[in-house]
Amino acid sequence: PVVTTRSGWGADESLVKDPATYTTDTKAVFAHHTAGTNDYTCEQSPDIIRAIFLYHVQSQGWNDIGYHFLVDKCGTVFEGRAGGIDKPVLGAQTYGFNTDTAGVAVLGNYNDALSSPPVREAVAAVAAWKLGLYGYDAAGSVVLTAAADNGKYTKGQKVTLNRISGHRDGYPTECPGNNLYADLPAIRTLAAATQAG
User: Fold this and answer.
1) How many CB atoms lie within 10 A of CB 151?
2) How much is the pLDDT for 97?
3) Regions of the chain with pLDDT less than 50
4) pLDDT of residue 128
5) Eight-state DSSP code of residue 31
6) What distance in Å separates the CA atoms of residue 97 and residue 93, rounded to the nearest whole number?
7) Can you tell me the distance from the alpha carbon of 56 to that of 51, in angstroms, rounded to the nearest whole number?
8) How far apart are the first and last CA of the chain?
9) CA-CA distance, 76 to 56, in Å (whole number)?
């Protein structure tokens, strides 16, 4: 998929203290929403992403923005965490399941808003591509092992998840919002069709 780079949205690379950490695989993709406003123009998306980046680094104390990719309501895909979109970068997006997974966050609150076809197509395209790099069927499932007690699972617990799951599937949260979560079956279908060519 076409991805707007970090320089394209204006990431201040001086705020990233350490180089990226890599895992070995991308076995699943978690869908998120940022739970912010839906009342933005797509020209404002870089501003919103910069604000999330600052929040993650300065308030949360993370090394970088937590998500691997971000998608705005127009379906534009943005590069998230540094280290290479085609590499298995360790993110900070689904506590307990950050190893060997990727996170795609849609800008907005999808408890309130409905997603659009461009949003669903963009999330599907990113997930299909990222999982496809490792030979995984985007419509399939995977067994992951929880790396921490996170309030939903206990450390060491084996959990069967869809290859494309919602944040709430791995962690006790409303994310990615009821409406976007309800779209995940359609997103899996779209992603599988993308992989099939």
Assistant:
1) 11
2) 98
3) none
4) 98
5) E
6) 8
7) 9
8) 13
9) 21
Q: What is the pLDDT of residue 70?
A: 98
* Gap between the Cα atoms of 39 and 48, Å rounded: 11
- Rounded CA-CA distance 103/28 in Å is 9
Q: Which residues contact 56 (CB under 8 A, 6 or more apart)?
A: 62, 64, 65, 66, 92
Amino acid at 72: D
Rounded to whole angstroms, the Cα distance separating 181 from 175 reads: 8
Among candidate residues 171, 158, 147, the one with its CA nearest the CA of residue 30: 171
**Which DSSP category does 39 fall into?**
-
Give 95's DSSP letter: T
Which of these, 96, 36, 90, lies nearest to 64 by C-alpha position? 90
DSSP letter, residue 149: -
In the chain, what are the domains? 3-11+23-196 (3.40.80.10)
pLDDT reported for residue 82 = 98
Q: What is the pLDDT of residue 142?
A: 98
Per-residue pLDDT tens over the stretch 135-151: 999 999 999 999 999 99
Q: CA-CA distance, 47 to 126, in Å (whole number)?
A: 22
pTM of the model: 0.98
The token pair at 68 is: 């691997």
Query: What phi and psi, each to the nearest 5 degrees, are found at residue 17?
Result: -80, -35
